[in-house]
Amino acid sequence: MKEITRINHAGLRVRDLGITREFYEKLGFVFIVGPIGPEPVAVMEHPAGININFILNASDDASEKNILSDMPVKHTGFTHFALEITDVEGVKSTLASHNIPITETINLPDGTEFFFIRDPDGNVIEFHKPAG
């Protein structure tokens, strides 16, 4: 459909707004509003225009694994979102300064680089640096 212009936001189910907010602020996101609505939802946005809605109704069972990424049976659904970056070493340095571990790094022959982290609820985030 030609009427679609871009992705407006991503929705992530999380357990604790305070923990989530602190983590995403380390990535440069700014708290906008929340909790609001019947779910309830909180909204954060990055200055680059990336908006995330945090759905605040996840189970409190911290032993749960990410059903889309950590289980042997591969279920359908969104497995991660990718944030395009301009400086791999700068992002890695920022992550290290906040003790956020990188879980996997991939370098393609064309020069594309990407690596992954997990948020406090196990949601996967990719940092993607295109070739060139």
UniProtKB/TrEMBL annotation:
Residue ranges of domain VOC in the record: 6-130
InterPro entries with a match to the protein in the record: Glyas_Bleomycin-R_OHBP_Dase (IPR029068), Glyas_Fos-R_dOase_dom (IPR004360), VOC_core (IPR037523)
PROSITE patterns in alphabetical order: VOC
Pfam families the record matches: Glyoxalase
Protein name in UniProt: VOC family protein
Organism: Enterovibrio norvegicus
